[in-house]
Amino acid sequence: MIVSVGLIGDPVAHSISPVMQNAAFAQHGLAESYALWPTPATKLPRRIAALRESSMRGANVTIPHKTAVIPLLDDLDPTAAAVGAVNTIVRTTEGHLHGLNTDVRGFMRALRSIGFDATQRAVVLLGAGGAARAVGYGLLHAGVESLTVVNRTIERAESLLADLLATTERDPQLLALSPDDSRLADVVASADLLINATSVGLDGVSLPLSPALLGPHLLVVDLIYRTTPLLRAAESCGAVTQDGLEMLVQQGALAFEAWTGLPAPVETMRAAAWRALQAHQGEDEASPR
Predict the structure, then answer these.
(1) Nearest 5°: phi and psi at 184?
(2) pTM of this prediction?
(3) Among 173, 198, 185, 186, which Cα is nearest to 122's?
(4) Is 66 labeled as catalytic in the residue annotation?
(5) pLDDT single digits (tens) 244-261
């Protein structure tokens, strides 16, 4: 069994991506496997260089390296370049390393899987990090009517919105707010979709905003791939909810197809991811990896 792909990050021990991707390799009868590659920042250049070996197909990239890998690659696809983050690396037959961002399409596929069309919708996005950047890009290009980014550091929210706006000719309503802004209640009350792209909730206790703001008018999505306090609060008030597992599966399917050129066995990958998640109950499991 040849290790041809893996997950580069620090830490990575929590990830269920190996189970999901190895199920896909097995489905296609490929004698290859997906490994975990814990990589501190000092060892990142060496790890990326190793992907140029002929036995490699590429890698996934997670926190904290999604931006740091960019100078180490040969080129980026337009989405990765616009978002400013890479979560998938593909080694070409010439040994070049091509950077992709499958988080964007993975998130949008996850939304569509529950019948949500983002066109002309009002969206509240919690967080301004790499995951929020990918999600915001996907939503903006899907034609949302408005996008409000909520972040403790308001300057980061403003910077994210400015960067996203520069990638499109559309002119949606954009707003940056801090969590304690008095306008937040009205914004959430008029929103169709609320997304948590922060790590708040991983402890099983914390909420990224007051549950009093939630209501049955919302679809509430948490990129953490388990039931979080936010999702429980949303369900209790009648909101539709989705955790991050489907995004994990969909972005992983896109990565598999980029590495192999084969159709991803999405149902097989989803079932494997679900089984792995059940086996990891009680541990800190977070999307996008």
Answers:
(1) -60, -40
(2) 0.92
(3) 173
(4) yes
(5) 999 999 999 999 999 999
